[in-house]
Amino acid sequence: MAYYEHVFLARQDISSQQAEELVAHFKGILEERGGKVDKVESWGLKSLQYRINKNRKAHFNMLNIDAPADAVQEMERQMRIHEDVLRYMTIRVDELEEGPSAMMKRNDRDDRRGDRDDRPRRDRGDRPDRGDRGDRGDRGERGGNR
After folding, report:
1. Cβ neighbours around 76 below 10 Å, total
2. Which helix (H) or strand (E) holds 51?
3. Burial of 10 (C-beta count, 10 Å sphere; 0-12/13-18/19+)
4. What is the pTM for the complete model shown?
5. What letter does residue 122 receive in the DSSP assignment?
6. Domain range list for the chain
7. What class has domain 2-95?
8. What value, to the nearest 5°, has the Cα angle with vertex 106 and ends 101 and 109?
9. How many whole angstroms separate alpha carbon 59 and alpha carbon 14?
10. Fewer CB within 10 A of the end CB, N or C, for the chain?
11. Hey, is 107 helix, strand or coil?
């Protein structure tokens, strides 16, 4: 059997619980055909860079799969039919990645970055290297942005 990383996007209208049921449904399809899912990661509801079928957000899910090719093809066929699946992508890999994926590591990094925003900001004081900028109230001569 081969190893695959599979990511799919589900519509924003469904709940998180329905997204989990969708994962369980596709996991069942793989297991019926002799495959197994080693890891499931839900990346949550995220904003899309562009609209897909009038959806601005989607539930992102990732599956690490150890299955024969025909099982993966059947799962993809069912995803094409299913109305809640917006996009999917399956990539064959040499070995499955242990531990959290890059997206989950990124979320941890973002959480730590949030702590930095809580600290007080320092006043930078005067900037002597900028020199005198004169009276900037009247921009009539240059036209200015009005």
Report:
1. 17
2. strand 36-52
3. buried
4. 0.69
5. P
6. 2-95
7. alpha beta
8. 135
9. 8
10. C
11. helix
